[in-house]
Structures are given as structure tokens and as C-alpha cells.
Specification:
Layout lengths: L2 H14 L1 H41 L3 E5 L10 H9 L3 E2 H10 L5 E13 L5 E10 L3 H4 L4 E4 L4 H6 L3 E4 L1 H8 L8 E4 L2 E9 L4 E2 L2 E2 L3 E5 L13 E2 L1 E5 L6 H15 L11 E4 H4 L1 H39 L1 H9 L4 H37 L8 H27 L3 H6 L2
């Protein structure tokens, strides 16, 4: 019996015993669905974190200087107390460091807090992310302006009351009319709108267009932070190869600035996007390590189901086996027939599982901010696992069928 004939026979048996075939593939479908769904979500999240999250939160090719870590997970009470004792970063710190940096690049300062922005005719929006920044902030974040312009270095240095609005804020306050040149009030201080950002979308369900960016030395100084205090000093280098040098240089200058002795730990944090995303790297690694075990359990259950149903199939088809042997079928033909049948069944289960897994991941992505991205290698792995599980589970039933005595088998009722 050749392979094509064996597959044709297996498909005929599946059509003849649909309910049995359904229960046979069910275990494989569940295991492969779980495999594809989890890998798809992890791959999508990984791409999302490294591109969208890193770009919008940190900026590409940047080093950030902060008084405490940007991402805090499972910090102890002692760690929180140590962070609170650290000196806050100031405008003077930013100027002092940027004047001494020898690595090519550009520096910026920024601080953010939720606030109220009021437009004409009493329209107002609460919980807008109000950011006080230097003019170089727009270059560091690669922020595109849709209307108008960003505020200039001169406006930022003089602390003039100008502001760049996010698309969502502009649309809500001016309802489709031009926002540039209009006046808004941020915490009751009047600001002239000089620009509107391009639509940026959302980040984990949080709108990135619900923002207002004003010069850090303007009236928001003292509102977003205590007077002359900044959340972060960011330094952007032209290429990623400069990052380690810039990081080391910023750390060294800041230690000098804080008069730290060689044996004292840093009283600040120096981060890159890669360092800030280390928490996600740890989570994804744990999930990838745990995934094979969870999938193996599901596929093992599926293999047991396949083996038991194939044994039932051998019992039900004893006379057929005896007839085939009496007509000249060899043991290896019988083994091949049942192995191909088991492999075909589980292969179909794998294909159904791939579709169900992609659909499940897409459904999760549609109702949550978690993105989904199918990894091509996971599809190939799912097919191999599906067929492999069936072949492994079908070995014993196939061997048992091949060993049946044809005379005894023909007497079977």
C-alpha cells in the first residue's frame, strides 16, 4: 500500500465514522489551539513592546536619567523609602549634564501629570496628560506635527505660554475647527495653540492623543512638578552604537553632580529602552519556558484519546483486517494503514487548532489592548506536533492490528 492510497483509505474511514473522528481530533485541536493562541499573543506583545511602547514611552536610541526607575514591579517598602530619599532632578541638572556630554546627541527634559484643559465656550477635558518639556522633546520622540508647528527653543527658554495639543484634545475642544491660533487654559493659565500632533493611537488602551505639551519653564512649572523639578532628562544619540557610551557618560557626570564616592550606589537611574523593557523580557521568557509543558500536557491527553479510539477501531475492524490479510496484505501494510489514519486524524486536528488558535488570539486582541501577531514558525510547529502526536499514539494500535491472526480475525463477528 503506497502513501497516497493509505491517506485515501484513512479519509474514507474518517467519513464513515464521523463521531469517532471528532473525538479523536478533539484533544489535538485543544492543544494546538492553546499553542497558537499563546505564541501569537506573545509574539504580538513582543513586537508591540519593542516598537510602539519603547518608541512612545522612551524614544528610540535614547538614554533616560530619572530619580527612580520608570517601571517598578514588586518593589519592597525599603526600596520605596530609598527612592523617596533621592534628590529630584532639576532644570540645572539638565543644563549641567547636556553642557558636558561629549557623545553626539541631543538632550531634552520632560515632566507629566494629569490635568484639566479648557477651551472656548466652556468646553473642558479632564485627565489630559499635561507635559512640560523642552523644544527638543519633539525631536527626541520623533513626534510629527499635523497642523501648525512645535514650539521653538526660544519660546521654551523664555517660558512663553504656547502649547501643542494632541489630536483628541483638539477635536474635542474645537469640534473640527482649526485649533492653531486659538487659546486654551491649562489649570486656568491661558496658552496659545501653536500646533496639533498627528494621531498616535492608543497604548494598552490609553489614548496617546489626549495630551497637551507646553514649555517646561512656562506656567506649568510648579504644576506638573515642584518648581524647577523634572521627571526625566533624555539624551538621544544618532545611532544605537552610541547608547552604551552615552549611558556610561551620563552616569559618570551625574555621580560627579551628586558628589558620590566610588563606594556609594547611584542616587538616580540611568535607563535605555532595553533596560526599561527588561520586565517584559522576563515575563515573555517565563511564558515561553512554561508553554511547552502546558502544551505537552494537553497533547498527551489528546494522544491517549487517539490511542484508545484507535484501539476501539482495531476491534471494530477485526474482520476487515483479517480479510485484507487473506487477500495478501502484509503486516507493514496494516501498520501503515492505521498509522496514516492516526496521523491524518491528528493532522486535521492540528489544522483546525491553528485556525481556532488564530481566531482566539484575534478575539482577545479585539476586546483588549493586547495585540496579536501570528509567528510563521508556530504554524509549522503546530502541524508537526499534530501529525507527530497522532503517529506516536497510533503505534500501539497499528502494531496490534498487524499482529492479528487472519483466520481468527475472519471468525470475528
Amino acid at each position: 500500500m503506497n502513501l497516497v492510497e493509505a491517506i485515501r483509505t484513512a479519509l474514507a474511514m474518517i467519513r464513515a465514522h464521523k463521531l469517532r473522528a471528532f473525538f479523536t481530533v478533539l484533544g489535538t485541536v485543544v492543544g494546538v489551539t492553546f499553542l497558537i493562541a499563546v505564541i501569537t499573543l506573545i509574539t504580538g506583545m513582543d513586537d508591540y513592546m519593542k516598537k510602539d511602547f519603547a518608541g512612545q514611552v522612551y524614544g528610540f536610541n535614547t538614554v533616560q536619567l530619572r530619580s527612580r526607575p520608570s517601571v517598578i514591579m514588586n518593589a519592597s517598602t525599603e526600596e520605596w523609602r530609598a527612592w523617596r530619599r533621592r534628590p529630584r532632578l532639576t532644570f540645572d541638572d539638565a543644563t549641567w549634564i547636556s553642557d558636558r556630554m561629549e557623545t553626539p546627541g541631543v538632550a531634552a527634559i520632560s515632566s507629566s501629570i494629569g490635568g484639566r484643559v479648557q477651551g472656548p465656550r466652556g468646553l473642558a477635558i479632564d485627565n489630559v496628560r499635561v507635559t512640560g518639556a523642552s523644544a527638543s522633546y519633539f525631536r527626541i520622540r520623533d513626534t510629527a506635527i499635523e497642523q501648525g508647528r512645535p514650539f521653538s527653543d526660544q519660546e521654551a527658554e523664555r517660558g512663553l505660554p504656547v502649547v501643542v495639543l494632541g489630536r483628541e484634545v483638539a477635536d474635542k475642544l474645537f469640534e473640527g475647527r482649526g485649533a492653531v491660533g486659538q487659546t486654551v487654559r491649562i489649570q486656568n493659565f491661558p496658552y496659545q495653540v501653536v500646533g496639533v500632533l498627528e494621531k498616535q493611537g492608543s497604548l494598552f488602551g490609553m489614548s496617546m492623543d489626549n495630551v497637551a505639551i507646553a514649555p517646561a519653564r512656562s506656567a506649568v512649572n510648579g504644576f506638573v512638578n515642584p518648581h524647577n523639578v523634572v521627571d526625566e532628562i533624555t539624551f538621544k544619540v544618532p545611532e544605537a552604537r552610541y547608547l552604551p557610551v552615552a549611558m556610561t557618560e551620563m552616569e559618570g557626570w551625574m555621580r560627579i553632580r551628586h558628589r558620590l564616592r566610588p563606594d556609594q550606589v547611584n542616587s538616580f537611574e540611568v535607563e535605555t529602552a532595553e533596560a526599561g523593557l527588561s520586565f517584559w523580557t522576563r515575563i515573555s521568557q517565563i511564558m515561553m519556558v512554561a508553554l511547552p509543558g502546558l502544551v505537552a500536557i494537553s497533547l498527551l491527553v489528546g494522544a491517549v484519546v487517539i490511542m484508545n479510539i484507535m484501539l476501539v477501531s482495531v476491534t471494530d475492524r477485526t474482520r476487515e483486517i483479517g480479510l485484507r490479510k487473506s487477500l495478501g496484505a502484509r503486516r507493514r501494510d496494516i501498520r501503515l494503514q492505521f498509522l496514516i489514519e492516526a496521523g491524518t486524524l491528528s493532522g486535521i486536528g492540528g489544522l483546525l487548532g491553528i485556525g481556532a488558535g488564530v481566531a482566539l488570539a484575534a478575539a482577545v486582541s479585539a476586546i483588549s489592548p493586547i495585540p496579536a501577531q501570528v509567528a510563521p514558525w508556530s504554524v509549522g510547529l503546530a502541524i508537526l506536533l499534530g501529525v507527530g502526536v497522532g503517529l506516536a499514539a497510533g503505534v500501539y494500535p497499528a502494531v496490534r492490528a498487524a499482529r492479528l491472526d487472519p483466520i481468527v480475525a475472519l471468525r470475528q463477528e
